Amino acid sequence: ERLLKVGSIVEAKYPELLANPVVVKKKNGKWRVCIDFTDLNKACPKDSFPIPHIDRLVEATAGNELLTFMDAFSGYNQIKMNPDDREK
């Protein structure tokens, strides 16, 4: 509700692609929500930019005097999607 209220997400009525959630009971009696994204992942274009290995990133910092850190977690929802890129 909070993300909807601030405009970070919008309601999508009748989407062509979706992944249905399934509620599964765990061994301890609690419930867990599971989502199978297999079909949705097959429909998505492949990313030509693989994620680098962490050891290579750490090695690349050797010898530098100044390092910076970006908080990608907090910034993720601040990137607006172009309306032309939404489902058609």
From TrEMBL:
- Stored Gene3D superfamilies: 3.30.70.270, HIV Type 1 Reverse Transcriptase, subunit A, domain 1
List the residue ranges forming a coiled coil, or say none. Answer: none
Domain spans labelled Reverse transcriptase: 24-87
InterPro entries reported in the protein's UniProt record: DNA/RNA_pol_sf, Rev_trsase/Diguanyl_cyclase, RNA-dir_DNA_polymerase, RT_dom
Known PANTHER family for this protein? RNA-DIRECTED DNA POLYMERASE HOMOLOG (PTHR24559:SF431), TRANSPOSON TY3-I GAG-POL POLYPROTEIN (PTHR24559)
Q: What is this protein called?
A: Transposon Ty3-I Gag-Pol polyprotein
Q: Which organism is it from?
A: Noccaea caerulescens (Alpine penny-cress)
Record lineage: Eukaryota, Viridiplantae, Streptophyta, Embryophyta, Tracheophyta
